[in-house]
Amino acid sequence: MLMAASRLPPAALSLKQFMVRQQVLCLYRGILRAVRQIPNPTDRRYMKEWAKGEFKRNKGEKEEGRD
């Protein structure tokens, strides 16, 4: 008798990883919403690009925090 293969992809996130990912996405969206409130278009564009760059730079980070 054959065992049914798992329906989850091999790289499925654990519950903890999923929750941390959701928190990070919520933080990112909140930052972008706050950036939209900046009145100066040049400053707004700079801050948006800075935030995007920082999140991309830390995309592969595995540690939750560094003290």
Automatic annotation (TrEMBL):
Keywords: Mitochondrion, Transit peptide. CDD domains: Complex1_LYR_LYRM2. The keyword Mitochondrion applies. It comes from the Eukaryota. It holds the Pfam family Complex1_LYR. The keyword Oxidoreductase does not apply. Its main location: mitochondrion. One of its GO terms (cellular component) is mitochondrion. Residues 22-64 form the Complex 1 LYR protein domain. It is found in: Mitochondrion. InterPro entries: Complex1_LYR_dom, Complex1_LYR_LYRM2. Belongs to the complex I LYR family. Involved in efficient integration of the N-module into mitochondrial respiratory chain complex I. This is LYR motif-containing protein 2. The lineage of its organism: Eukaryota, Metazoa, Chordata, Craniata, Vertebrata.
